[in-house]
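Re: the request from the purification team.
They wanted to know what the chain is likely to look like in 3D before they choose a buffer screen. I agreed to run a prediction and write the result into the notebook, where they can find it.
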Amino acid sequence: MSLQREPAMTVERGGLSALEIAQGVTGQKISALGVTEATLARIAKHNPVLNAFTDVTADRARARARAIDAAVAAGQNAGPLAGVPFAVKNLFDVQGLSTRAGSKINRDLKPSPRDAALIQRMEAAGAVLVGALNMGEYAYDFTGENVHDGASRNPHDVTRMTGGSSGGSGSAVGGDLVPLALGSDTNGSIRVPASFCGTFGLKPTYGRLSRAGSFPFVFSFDHLGPFARSVSDLALAYDVMQGPDPDDAACTTRPAEPVTPLLAQDIGGLRIAIAGGHFQNSVFPEATEAVARVAKALGTTRTVEIPEAARARAAAYVITTSEGASLHLDRLRKRPNDFDPAVRDRLLAGAMIPAPLIDRAQKFRRWYRARALEMFQSVDVIIAPATPCVAPKIGQVTFVLDGVELPVRANIGIHTQPISFIGLPVVAVPVPLEPLPIGVQIIAAPWREDIALRVAFALERAGVASAPSPRGF
């Protein structure tokens, strides 16, 4: 699509990447306001089907876009994301909105007096916030089905799940409503929607990006990160959000380490392996096919087994439910009937886990992290399925895996939980299989997002990983 002044974008499809929008706005080939208006029009047209947005901040977006256009006209630097529309999972504080975190209860909160730290950093780089996105209640969800706001819908087949809990983020980017969105990932809530909705997603190292101004779920697991339709856009958003923040106790020491200039570096010297054992079991053929395509493109047949990954997943469940229950005890006592029953019951179960079992899970976590770090002495990158299957149908309760009927909700994150359990950085890359895409995890050692993004970029250039155009609506 040419970067003509107006109209820059069509209502039907966004068409332009974040990088192209920023270059067009900075070069005055398109206007930030024109991009914003076209984005708002697409949201108005398609969100009734996708149900990705819960709030649209149209007036704010227009005011911000006008300010960017004025800055550009005055010869000022409007930032690397000048005029780029983005949206955020509704657990991010947005000034003037109640931070609902996918719940009914939080709608009674007063409007937030300020934006979350990452929203501030995105807007400081020139981006334009256009709204807040649907999510699973209190982020305790892998399906994208919210009982209060309705299910977010998959842009490649609206009868199917987006995955969760950042389902609206996956749907909005996969559906090309916005080029960038922010989500959170505790046990897989960026990587699962990225896999189902055919987008790139980054779960950074635990503590890399500030969580200040976001509603928590499990403090010792929670990560925030971006979704995008290209690796370049993903890296660009990630770079502008980096940097320590004294308001997040986990994000106080690591300096910003920009990766965008490194994306095209040769990956030939990297030691790349395929995750075996747990990660090759309990998968549908499409997940096996996606990993095989990625492995072939990267020229690797080497397999490594992440030790005790299945046990790590079990320990992650123990810590998730107990820590999450502790956060919500007062709400569980006072307003139990205002929870999604499935979320409420899991939290109640977590409140009853004996302390010795929690202690045992935490001790195992330390052991498991040490073994994983040892493994990265001999490998640089591990590839693994992001989900065991393509997106299930909305409302689907079970699937048959390895001849066993299993609950869908509990098993979608079977391959993501052992990784976020110890905070490793991961890029989820979409492999555009027919008829639906599926994701593959590119896993690196702590603080080596640059390596994971370089491998993802190489896969994108090779045509193995790409965000397919939405076709379900």
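For the purification team: Confidence is low (pLDDT under 50) at residues 1-13.
Please add any questions underneath this entry.
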